[in-house]
Amino acid sequence: MGKTIESVTFDPSYYPAAVVSCAVFLYLYKYAGPNISSKLSPKYSSLTEADRIDWNTRFNSSLHSTFVSCMCVYSLIYDEDISNEPIWANSPMVRTSCAIVVGYMTCDVLIMTIHYKKIGEVFYFFHHGASIYAYFYVMTYGVLPYFANFRLMAEFSTPFVNQRWFLDKLKYPRTSTVFMLNGLAMTITFFFVRIAVMPTYWRRVYSVIGTEPFKRLGHISLVLVITCFILDSINIFWFYKMCHGVRKVLTIYSNKTPVPVLNHVDKEE
User: Which run of H or of E encompasses 218?
Assistant: First the structure.
């Protein structure tokens, strides 16, 4: 008989990685981020307090998404076990990635809670809560490594979203070449890593539903289906806003009117 969630030992060995991740991102937010940002962009110091707080969280977000997505690509290419056994394969790399994500999102929730009046949004508490809930099980029990790794590769689009916000705060014209190129890169990347991959992801989910390994998940099977359905619904909403922005880009070239390039799109994890 194979593993069941009841038979898998509660394994907190990856918790230190989550704690270190949270501590590192808190340090980056409080000290390293502001120092680096002020040196790279003198305008950083002239921002409002709320904008500096938001800037520092996006600085963290960009570093986190770049690092984790690279780890996920490595796992996808070199870790054959997670493809052969997507539910129960034990992948230290994937579990470490999830621990880093849990630590980062915990840090982000703490910052948003402390500065709720300035940058807090209920939407992001909901998003982070759903993500932490899902990756907690992967980190703790080692289950669903393939699906967790697949979902985290979506982070490739996040730096472009943050870069758009940075350009806006630095007063780059929304009709400038750099603003429009970043906006198009953001939309294209978002489409490929979050929207276009949905059929592939859900086809793989469908292929394991009802199998013996899936049945042995017990209640954790809800993480695979419900949490990912919620996150995909959020991604579709974001992509709708981006497409609305692309339409405005096309309007610029067809009517030659100085309309904004893209609607406001907030950061996503």
Answer: none
User: pLDDT tens digits for 147-172?
Assistant: 999 999 999 999 999 999 999 999 98
CA pair distance 76, 82, nearest whole angstrom: 8
- Kind and range of the H or E run holding 170: none
Whether the per-residue pLDDT at 131 is higher than 80: the answer is: yes
Mean pLDDT along residues 1-7: 61
**pLDDT tens digits for range 229-260:** 888 988 899 899 888 877 776 676 566 555 45
Alpha helices in 28-121 (DSSP H): 33-40, 49-78, 80-84, 92-114, 116-119
3-class SS of residue 196:
coil
CB proximity list for 257: less than 8 A, separation 6 or greater? 251
> Which DSSP letter does residue 191 get?
I
Virtual torsion, Cα 147, 28, 242, 240, nearest 10 deg: 50
Nearest residue to 153 via CA among 254, 248, 240, 82: 82
Distances (CA, A) of 122 to 53, 74, 113, 116, 187: 17, 34, 10, 9, 24
Orientation angle between helical segments 92-114 and 145-152, nearest 10 degrees:
50
User: Which residue ranges make up each domain of the chain?
Assistant: 15-255
